[in-house]
Amino acid sequence: MYLHHLELRAIGPYPDLVTIDFAALAASGVFLLEGPTGSGKSTIIDAVVFALYGGLAGSDASNDRLHSQHADPAVEPFVELVFETGAGVFRVRRTPQYDRPKQRGTGTVKQQSSAQLSRLADPADPAGEPISARAQEVGAEIARIVGLDRAQFLQTVVLPQGEFARFLKSPGEDRRKLLQSLFGTEIYDRTADELAARRRAAAAEVDAADARVRDALARFAEASGRSAADEPDVPAVVTELRTVADAAAHARSDATAAAQLAADHEQAVVLRLAALERRAALLRRAVALDDRAVAVAAARARLALAERAARVAAVADGLDAARARATRAEQERDALRERHGVHDTDTTGDTTGGTAGVRDRLAEAVGAVRHLVPVAESLPGRRSAVDTAVADAERLREQLAELDAALERRPAERARIVEAARAAAEAAGDADAAQRAVDAVQDLRRTAAELDAVRARVTDAEAAVGVARAAATAALAAEQHLRERRIAGLAGELGAALTPGDPCPVCGAVEHPAVATPQDDHPTPAQIGEAAAAARRADSVLADAATDLALERAEQDRLATVVGSVSVVDIDRRDTEATARLRAARAAATTVAERERERAAHDDTTRALERERNDVDARRQVLLATSAADAQRLDQDTDLVRAALDSLSTAPAAPAVPTAPAAPDEPAAPDDLAGAVAALDRRVAELGAVVDAEERARAATAVADERATEVARVVADQDFPDVAAARAAQLDAAETTRLRHDVDDADRERAVVDAGLAEPPVVAAADDAEALDLDGARTEKARTAAVLEAATRAAVTAEDRAGATERCATEVTRAVTARESTSARSRAVVRLADIAAGAPGHNPTGITLGTYVLMRRFEDVVAAANDRLRSMLGGRFTLETSDERESGVRARRTGLALAVRDHTTDTTRDPRSLSGGETFTFSLCLALGLADVVQAEAGGVSLGTLFVDEGFGTLDPETLDDVIGQLARLTAGGRQVGIVSHVEELKQRIPERIAVRRVPGGGSRVTTTV
């Protein structure tokens, strides 16, 4: 993981916005976070940890330190961090919980914390893609993206103040808790707890299995009736009881057979006695039937005679009804002929079917002209439509002439519009030149204004040169004056430097009888040097002022050349003319657009007129053609209607038909043909009614003749002399019912008696002469039933006891098998639980499973730390692990004891005996080793940024070089290492830094040096 950018505001001692570019700081690999103690260095690391995980770096730090007490209470505190992992670039922004002033009234209100996480296309992406805005989801997502939780992050990326010194010197139990949180080995402790719980559960299962065996034996003893039965006795008892049950079942089977035989015998005796009684009763009923036989035969003969007479009477009644219907049909026929005026003379000479033939020919004549009725009715409307079409064609001709005249005027109007557009386009073509003229005048005006400003600056520069020249002259005079005064007082200066016995620098004498003394205001070399420096500064100021004056004068000359002799009045005049020219060109351009729109509208109107003219012409041609054709068809249809009227007037037996109009040019009236057809239709209907009546009369006469012939045949078939004799032989309904009842009753009784005597038991009873003992049979049946009941009770009791015993024996076997299986399973669980818990009988080392796993991880951490220690402190020390109890600790062995091996003295020391510098070095190596192992355990998470907080002040220069060298080697592969310290020597070694300083008003500020 790499940190790119950090922003924070109103956090800790920083009331204002703080921006840190980690990517620029870490260009060389190592950067320094320095500042006085308490200025806020650790707050920056806290801000990084808070942005990622919502908490602080120190284990005992409170979130209350986040909100700055120096910031305005209304300013929202926040931390925003841009970081990069293998999953991409992300930005997280968090705000802590804080109290802000109420928007209305006085007092404060608590503002809850918030979090936002976004995915960025690159570190400079200002927007990004939002991922989540819920604090809990943001925390889980960052843990997934980074690959480390907060505890792992603090041990691999941020090494806080004093944390690893405590880790180095803490007891093994404390190390176990920390390592357990880092490596997530709680699962092994939970595994040991689970094994212990399963051990207890296994013991409980074994006890429960024993109890189930005892319960099964108790139920077996109760079922078998053997109170002293034990596990080995179960099979023998089951076999014995099953033998008893089988014997009782065999006895019950024998008793059942004997009882069934006695019951069958008793039933047979009862049935034979009943058959004898039924046969005697049937014989008595047969004698009674023989006594009634003569009367039944006479009734049967009388019923047969009455049935033959009824057949003759029914046919005779049909003849009477047919003759009555024939008479009515003839009367109806004569009435219809009279009503419709049909006489025999109308059909006398007709050889094609009489009245029916006349009807058919008349109907044929009407059918031949019926289709012309709608044609005749449509003649007036069609004549009116033809006249209307002719009038419409004339109107369209007049409209066509008007449209032709309008189209002839269109070309001249279009030419006028095109000419106006061309003239406007010529005027608009001057727009670019007019715009350039306007721009040139504006440039000239700006140049004139700049010339006035430059002239003012030239005047100011000349004044500045005069002042600088005067100052330089005065400074030079002051320097010259001091030099002259020093030369004048040089003897005193030399005398002041003489000491007794030293040779004189002028004459070389060692005696100095009258040594000159310097004056009180004698100039010193330092004063002369200051005066010379002041003179040089004044000369430099004068040179700079002269250069500025020369530049301003050159600019003045250039601008004056550009402006020339043009005055402000000339510029205003040129501006007015150019502006008017440009306005006219733009107005002409607008006119061109308007004329183009007018020409387009004119062309659209012309095309619309042409389309309308073509449409009118087409409609006129269509009307002319259709009206001529319609008029021709109208004349043809009129002739057909006249011919139809003529044909109807000559039809046979037709009523009077209207005659056609006298004038041949006028069409026939449609009502004439329709009335004629309607009149003939009525006549055809009347003739049809007469024909139907004649047909009904002929049919009724034929039916009556057929009925008479049938009556004669039936009278002969039924052996009667005539119809009157047959009617006399008929019986009334009551007598017929009485006779029929007597005959049917005798027939039914005879059938019942014959069927009963033919039954097999009745037939067998006729030959049964043996005496039947019903009482003896019933006594034997009762005796065998009692024996069967006793045998059944004994068999059921024996079977129930044997079955219950077998079921209980099965339960005993199942319980014993389950107990043995439970015991076998529990042995492995108990042994494994004892090993995991460090039970002395199974685990001689006494080390639990979780501690054993941590020992292996801890050995990896110590090995990684020793790799760095060998290049520090002259290779004198290494770390060693031990599974023994640490000195001064009474707790059980954790296997995480730590000792320092001194190779110089070949002795082992307690980590608490190390000096301050040695403690820091060991702690740093241990922290870096732990970071390497945690990184590997976290799935090879790439850790691109590392912070080391404090401890460097305890190192001597040589050890400090070793530590810096180790940290520099960490930067291989692009890793960034930030050192948090206030040691002055680190400032000289590391140029890239973040400097934190307190400000007088409270709080701190941050300065970044790259």
Q: Label the structural class.
A: alpha+beta
Strand content: 5-15%
What is the distance, rounded to the nearest whole angstrom, between the alpha carbons of the first and last residues?
21 Å
Oligomer: single chain
Task: Figure out the total of helices.
Answer: 24
**What percent of the residues sit in helical stretches (DSSP H or I)?**
55-70%
For the biggest β-sheet, the strand order reads 2-1-4-5-8-9
Question: What is the gyration radius calculated from CA atoms?
Answer: 71 Å
* Global mean pLDDT: 79
Extended strand count? 17
Shape: flat
In terms of per-residue confidence, which ranges show pLDDT below 50 for 5 or more consecutive residues?
Answer: 659-670, 886-891
Biggest sheet features:
6 strands, antiparallel
Structure report:
This protein is α+β, with helices and mostly antiparallel strands and 1010 residues long. Helix content is 66%, strand content 9%. It has 24 helices and 17 strands. The protein has a six-stranded antiparallel β-sheet with strand order 2-1-4-5-8-9. A hairpin with a 5-residue loop joins strand 16 (993-998) and strand 17 (1004-1009). Helix 7 (186-224) runs antiparallel to helix 21, helix 8 crosses helix 18 (733-757) and helix 10 (354-369) packs antiparallel against helix 15. The radius of gyration is 71 Å and the shape is flat. The two termini are 21 Å apart.
